[in-house]
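[audit] Reproducing an earlier prediction to check determinism. Same input, same settings, fresh worker. If the tokens differ from the archived copy the diff job will pick it up downstream; this log only records the rerun itself.
[audit] input (119 residues):
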Amino acid sequence: MSYSGNNKGKLGEIIAAKYFEEHNYEIVEKNYRYKHGEIDLICRKEGILIFVEVKSRFSLQYGEPEYGVTKAKQRQVRKMAAAYFYDKGIDECECRFDVIAILFDGNKDYTLNHIENAF
């Protein structure tokens, strides 16, 4: 099965959302957009709002998927979290930033690495 770049990312986001649901997280938003940015997933568990960046890869040619969450991407996700608080009128809320790294093996199998408090 072959996937284009966008389809790979969407498949990873679907798998990540399913993972969170199976682990008793509430999915608050999928692909939250504000102006020129996007957050893949926003979840809640035990009163903590979790902003999630999902990275999917089909090979290790460019390293592990989590290495794709660069400092610049981290800054962008933080900006989007601040925009989310502003947009939703949230003054105070405990939050964290997680990464879901998915490496596909070329078939339907994959490994998923959930990195809590990634940055």
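[audit] rerun output stored. Observation attached for the diff report: The chain has one domain: 5-115.
[audit] end
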